[in-house]
Amino acid sequence: YLAVDNSPNVLEGEWNYTRCVVIQFETKADFETWYRSPEYQNILKHPYLRTSLQPFVNPSKPDEHHLSRD
């Protein structure tokens, strides 16, 4: 993972979670392999864990996703 925050500072909207974890994968195929893995799919079978996870995908690489100063 790239980062873990046990008490993220929410600036907008609602965040009903206690932790934020950012994971980076080299390729979309690597992400899909992880997401479809038996280990992760087993996590999704547990009601508590399933309702406390909110995965999302950002396809850009860190060096491609930046704010312009113009």
Jot down its keywords.
70 residues, two-stranded antiparallel ribbon, 2 strands, 30% helix, disordered C terminus
Short description:
30% of the residues lie in helices and 9% in strands. The protein has helices at residues 28-35, 38-44, 47-52, and strands at 3-5, 20-22.
Q: Categorize the overall geometry.
A: globular
Proportion of strand residues:
5-15%
- Cα-atom radius of gyration: 15 Å
Task: Give the % helix.
Answer: 25-40%
**Biggest sheet features:** 2 strands, antiparallel
Task: Strand order, main sheet: write it out.
Answer: 1-2
**Could you list the spans in which at least 5 consecutive residues all have pLDDT below 50?**
65-70
Distance between the termini: 32 Å
Instruction: Determine the number of helices (DSSP H or I, runs of at least 4 residues).
Output: 3
Mean pLDDT: 76
List SSEs in N-to-C order.
Answer: EEHHH
Please tally the β strands and state the result: 2
Coarse structural class = alpha+beta
What order do the helices and strands come in, and which of them pair?
Layout: E1 3-5, E2 20-22, H1 28-35, H2 38-44, H3 47-52
Written description of the protein model:
The chain is an alpha+beta fold and 70 residues long. The protein contains 3 helices and 2 strands, in the order E-E-H-H-H. Strands 1-2 form a two-stranded antiparallel ribbon. The termini are far apart. The C terminus is likely disordered.
